[in-house]
Amino acid sequence: MNLISVKNLAVKYGGNTVLQKVDLDIEQGEIVTVVGPNGSGKTSLLKAIIGAVEPATGLVTLKPELKIGYVPQRLNFNPTLPITVERFMRLTAKAETKSCITALETAGVPELLKGQMSELSGGQFQRVLLASALLGCPEILLLDEATQGLDQPGSAAFYRQIEAVRRDTGCAVLMISHDLHVVMSASDRVICLNGHVCCAGTPAVVASTPEYKALFGDGTDGALALYRHDHDHHHDNSAKIHEVAD
Amino acid sequence: MLDDFMMRATLAGIGVSLAAAPLGCFVVWRRMAYFGDATAHAAILGVALSLALDVSIFAGALLVSLVMAWTVTQLSVRGYAMDTLLGVLAHSTLAVGLVVVSFLSGVRIDLMAYLFGDILAVSRADLAIIWAGAVLVIALISWRWSSLLITTLNEELAYASGLNPNREKLILTLALGITVAVAIKVVGVLLIVAMLIIPTAAARSLARTPEAMAFMGALIGIISTAAGLRAAYIFDTPTGPSIVCVASVFFTIFSIIVPVRNKRF
Fold this sequence. Notes:
The complex is a heterodimer of chains A (about 250) and B (about 260).
Chain A: E1 4-13, E2 16-26, E3 31-35, H1 42-50, E4 57-62, E5 68-71, H2 85-92, H3 97-106, H4 122-134, E6 140-144, H5 152-169, E7 172-177, E8 182-184, E9 189-193, E10 197-201, H6 210-216, E11 224-226, E12 233-235, E13 241-243
Parallel strand pairs in A: 3-7, 3-9, 5-6, 6-7
Antiparallel strand pairs in A: 1-2, 1-4, 8-11, 9-10, 12-13
Helix pairs in contact in A: 2-4, 3-4
Chain B: H1 5-29, H2 33-53, H3 57-77, H4 82-103, H5 111-116, H6 124-143, H7 145-153, H8 155-160, H9 165-187, H10 192-204, H11 210-235, H12 239-257
Helix pairs in contact in B: 1-6, 1-9, 1-10, 1-11, 2-3, 2-4, 2-9, 2-10, 3-9, 6-9, 10-11, 10-12, 11-12
């Protein structure tokens, strides 16, 4: 059975349709990257999956008792809230200190256990959020713009971490990214969203070519890949969709 | 022991400080200071209506502040420009309340007592209501503590953890309404938010966990109450403002002595 099954989903805010006719199935252990420009409805898709918005039409079905590990954007953190990394991790999952350390090791930052959330760097913060999501032994990780605010080597390192987590735990990954052309190379599928599904495919693995080295340098170890869009239509300024004849 | 008005005043202040600390933490973390002001100011309208209808002031203030808090929560969901909206609501309800009070020609009202509190006039019955309200607020917030924290940190994270952030926000709304109603007698509608945010904000620089911030906030609130009452007695100054002055001194001192790196305001 699919972990997540989205059928003919539409999401509306007031009279404004942000998402329509979206079909998406996520199987055990696969990595799916959803890319799209700002306002393309990719965050709404994630919100519909976790139940934060009601679908206007269509159906979102989760596997019964699905264990979700959610990695939010860092944006909302308020520094007036004093909280250690350990306390933060144990808020969403009943866990012992030992499991927290293990999860932080998996995320690559075991030394941060006693640190203050408000004093972490961008990369450390994302890794703590990841560790916190891993604490509940999720069957699927949902990542909302997880590499926002990270530089390219930082994103690459984070992607390698996700890849390792999938390899070690077998959990599926649904990742949302605003970067239209550079995606995680371990993605099994890439879905391009702009109000609806524009195209879907696999990332091109070209890590050994000189062009790749020129683009990403040596520090990214092949964690990044280019995604070639294959749209059969284009969007004009009024958001109307024009089919393009083959 | 309760025959002494200073003792009753101190106990009333302690009750309000205890309830204000955990709630005040969320007011600071969720940037709800103006929301608190709107709710507290609306309570003066509740006071006016209670006097007109000859019902308990606690009940009137509680009802109106709950209606106000609930209305603002609903409007915020619909995405109004909150800053302006809260400014409009806070001051118009205060103004309407003051105008309504002026129509009540039959009763002679000491308006200052409701605006700035009259802690020295706290009766045994008042004390019972204040402590009942305080216990209720503490119980509500302790019960939902972790869920409220998750909701405050990130609403999507709350949904993904199987919580309903709107229900958690309703708990805060309810706690705020109760706190406003019981704090009127102690510091008055104009200074209630001060009791919510100043002790907890002072505690922020010292605390490393959310719980520590609430406990230290309560402690600072209690010390401010005791010292403020004493100062008011010695220097013959108004009690509510004196208590808030002491709390502000704590805030200033802790903000200065804690390293710049940790300043969050």
